[in-house]
Amino acid sequence: MSQASNAQTSTNAVSDGGAAATGESEAIAANTRGPWPATATATAIAYTNALEVIAATEPDVAAAIRGELENQRRQLKLIASENYASPAVLLAMGNWLSDKYAEGTPGHRMYAGCEMVDRVETLAAGHAIALFGAEHAYVQPHSGIDANLVAYWAILAKRVEAPALEEAGAKHVNDLPADAWDHLRHSFNEQRMLGMSLDAGGHLTHGFRPNISGKLFNQASYGVDPESGLIDYDALARQAREWRPLVLVGGYSAYPRNPNFALMAEIAEEVGATFMVDMAHFAGLVAGKVLTGDFDPVPHAGVVTSTTHKSLRGPRGGLVLCKGEYAPFVDKGCPMVLGGPLPHVMAAKAVALAEARRSSFADYAAAIVANARALAEGFSRRGVKLVTGGTDNHIVLMNVEASFGLTGRQAESALLDSGVVTNRNSVPSDPNGAWYTSGVRMGTPALTTLGFGADELDEVADVIAEALRATQPASGTSKAKYMIDAKVAERCRGRCTDLLAAHPLYPEIEL
Ligand SMILES: *Cc1c(COP(=O)(O)O)cnc(C)c1O
After folding, report:
1. What domains lie within the chain, and their CATH numbers?
2. I want to staple 62 with a disulfide (CB 3.0 to 4.6 A). Which of 54, 303, 329, 414 is the partner?
3. Comparing 28 with 211, which gets the higher pLDDT?
4. How far apart are CA 169 and CA 20, in angstroms?
5. With contact defined as beta carbons under 8 Å apart, do 245 and 270 qualify?
6. Residue 136's closest CA among 339, 305, 312, 16?
7. Where would I find the beta strands (DSSP E) of 139-250?
8. How is residue 232 annotated by DSSP?
9. Is the CB of 203 under 6 A from ligand 1?
10. Who contacts 2 (Cβ-Cβ below 8 Å, separation ≥6)?
């Protein structure tokens, strides 16, 4: 299927509410759900048996696994960083690949007997390279944080350590005399980073003090225009010229628009910075070719990091993509930063990346964005104020202080009472600070996986607006306490149950 026809059918599916379109939107909905229904019977048997095996040893764990599925089936999941992986992805993690030690890289391991680990790691990396058009892929990072640490140390190794070794005429850090080593250790700590500020939507791992990245780098952050909520590239360029960072970090966890990575790469190049993009949140939109050209980070950044479990819909984990010049340094992620790789998770990454290479994944990615737009339009129609006024990606960031006179903390709790799971989030220049906040972040990857369409996202906007209109701060002083009309909360929960009943999670699995 060509990209153009994907885009067109997806648009039809989400915009036509009429009966004539029903057959087609059902087909698209089934398509965005990926390959799961084809293996329904096998999946049902696999989980029934797996839980029986676990219960025979520790019944409480089997009960918790069942309970988690019950919870996930009960709640409308609008957490922007969560998704539902396929049974194939989940099952690829539950096996004896987990028992193997495999420090090193395929063909260069510290342990014997790694043929099958080599095979899954090579498969996963190959899928990642093909899917993203990357020069190199490293699929060992255990999480997004680990992927970023591998990237930072690869950049430091290439740009700080390698020149120091060359100057000293040494091949290896072990060959440096004590004073040269001492000097090098300190110079790692003197490097500057420029990353997006937290209240503009950046991430803790982009140089903030509570994270090790902030203790390692001397960080300055760029924000967004206070009026528009958008990145101001001229201001960013001025700041970069002044700060002259070693690393310019792009990417976000709460920005509802698409940064222009081509522009950011130009800025990095001008000031001699390595441009790194953390696409943890939107990797699925890159994989599904929603983000192309200037908005695709892979051709523009020296190093790109990601999680695999968010919009990419794989197992919990991370990966690093890079230009060839960074590859030898990235490949030293273990043992530089990581312990032994998780071969079972790399196997699941290979499965997920294979799924993402199918044309149906492009339908899925297009539907994520169409659904986010429907949600944002649903809010705007109901008078709810959104950061930047809308969305171009999978995220909708609601300003609940401006819309309902609530803190993010109050709104998040009232929504949970109403059957909707979200998380509170800062808005630009947030008056309520990073703990209570003034925003609620929502995302559509999970509901889109279930097969929700635009009309249903409009209904979701209505449920959320109804719940928050019925919520008030409990006192003038507390930013946490709130009151919600119990009848309204109950009605909203019922509406969520109805929506979820039409799109059950893993319907093939019976508990
Ligand atoms: C989620 C996220 C991470 C961290 O991922 P973990 O797997 O939880 O470590 C890093 N960067 C960004 C931008 C994220 O959104």
Report:
1. 1-58+359-511 (3.90.1150.10), 97-356 (3.40.640.10)
2. 54
3. 211
4. 74
5. no
6. 305
7. 192-196, 218-222, 247-250
8. -
9. yes
10. none
Q: Which residues, 6 or more positions from 331, have their beta carbon under 8 angstroms from its beta carbon?
A: 105, 138
Distance from residue 452's CA to the centre of ligand 1 (Å): 25
Amino acid at 179: D
pLDDT for position 19: 35
Decide if pLDDT at 36 tops 80.
no
Give residue 406's Cα distance to chain centre: 27
DSSP-based three-state secondary structure for 244: coil
Instruction: Give the bridge partners for 218, in sequence order.
Output: 192
Distances (CA, A) of 311 to 82, 320, 457: 7, 16, 17
Three-state DSSP at 77 gives: strand
Q: Which residues, at least 6 apart from 453, have a Cβ–Cβ distance to it below 8 Å?
A: 13, 14, 25, 28, 29, 367, 371, 374
Place of tokens 């225009």: 225
Model confidence at 219: pLDDT above 90: yes
508, 37 Cβ separation under 8 angstroms: yes
Whether 14 has a pLDDT exceeding 90, the answer reads no
Q: Is the CB of 278 under 6 A from ligand 1?
A: yes
Closest by Cα among 152, 125, 118 to 139: 125
Query: Which tokens hold the place of 132?
Result: 């993203």
Residue 161 DSSP class: I
Distance from Cα 145 to the centre of ligand 1, integer Å: 6
Q: What is the CA radius of gyration of the chain?
A: 24
Q: Say how many residues make up the chain.
A: 511
Tokens of 46: 């696999």
The residue to mutate among 142, 149, 203, having the most atoms of ligand 1 within 8 angstroms of its beta carbon, is 203
Q: Say if residues 394 and 369 touch (Cβ distance below 8 Å).
A: yes
Q: What value does the mean pLDDT take over residues 262-284?
A: 98
